[in-house]
Amino acid sequence: SPAALLYQLPGLSLARTPARFTFAFALAVAALAGYGAFTLMNRWPKRGRALLVIAGLFALFEYQAFWPYATVTADVPPAVQALRTRDDVRAVMDMPWGNLLAAKEGMFLQTEHHKPLIAGQVTRGTPVSPAKLTLLEETLDPALMNADGVDVVMLHKRYASDTLIKNLRDSFGAPTYEDERLALFDVPDTQAAPQFVSIGARDTTSERPVWHFYAPAAGWYRFEAALSSPNTDARAIALRLNDAVITRATLTDAPTLFDLLLYVDAAGYHTFTLNVVPRCPSPITPNTLICPLAQVTGAQLTPLDATSS
Questions:
Q1: Which residues pair with 301 in a beta bridge?
Q2: Of the candidates 260, 257, 234, which has an alpha carbon nearest to the alpha carbon of residue 247?
Q3: pTM of this prediction?
Q4: Nearest-CA neighbor of 293 among 204, 212, 217?
């Protein structure tokens, strides 16, 4: 279409979403302001200058609504800088991994410690598997971390929950460095091989229940649960393994027992999800829409035979 062609042109490519048309609006207002200033200066040279000064002062006064601007110190703690000289540190994991501000601060600190990051960020998010990051953060399993090269955890305290802070201290002991913003933890050395582990609610009601698991080898895994849709007569669902649909079903308000075998063809991190179809509209307002959800009871995800094929 002509619009799609225009979007490829330099400058116009910035407005690839409707909200970004505000850039074009700001450009038009700036041009009009320039014409207005030019007219004032030519019609009333002295009075025009005074009016422009008054307009500039008014703009500064208006900006008080945003004053003072939020700032943070750019000082990097010596303990973070010292990581660059440590040969025993293969990579650093910033926690909590799902917070974009923590990710940005972690990338800034990487300019000083120079170590690889487990997550990092590309545009608005990380390309690393959420299953991997969630399992590393929630289990704090030294075997998993050792297998993935995590030797130091950098906790961004202002974005972390009390639970995460407590779990880190309980698992790794006292931090090697701590201030009001950061805490550094060394991951204990271990020679143990990572074992099967899964994270997901045993009982939940949601539009998209999720279970993450680590498979130490290719093979079969079993998912068992009672599934129902409590607020509708019938609701279609799709069960996915790593985004690939493995089966579909229809839920009613009566619980149905599911016993599914999942085959993974490689060791590593995997995600099993249950999606209602079609997905719930967003946003949902209590007075206008009721979104049928999936109710999960007694969910278990276990290895059946990690060596069979």
A1: 223
A2: 260
A3: 0.77
A4: 204
CB 81 within 8 A of CB 113: yes
- In SS3 terms, the chain reads as CHHHHHCCCCCHHHCCCHHHHHHHHHHHHHHHHHHHHHHHHHHCHHHHHHHHHHHHHHHHHHHHHHCCCCCCCCCCCHHHHHHHHCCCCCEEEEECCCCHHHHHHHHHHHHHHCCCECCCCECCECCCCHHHHHHHHHHCCHHHHHHCCEEEEEEEHHHCCHHHHHHHHHHHCCCCEECCCEEEEECCCCCCCCCCEEECCCCEEECCCEEEEEECCCEEEEEEEEEECCCCCCEEEEEEECCEEEEEEEECCCCEEEEEEEEECCCEEEEEEEEEECCCCCCCCCCCCCCCCEEEEEEEEEEEECCCC
Cα separation, 159 vs 72, in Å, equals: 14
pLDDT in tens, the chain (309 residues): 576 777 777 766 666 666 777 777 888 999 998 898 888 888 888 888 888 888 888 888 887 776 777 777 788 999 999 999 999 999 999 999 989 889 999 999 999 999 999 988 777 778 899 999 999 999 999 999 999 999 999 999 999 999 999 999 999 999 999 999 999 999 999 999 999 999 999 998 887 899 999 999 999 999 999 998 877 767 888 999 998 999 998 888 888 899 999 999 999 999 999 988 877 666 655 555 566 678 899 999 999 864 443
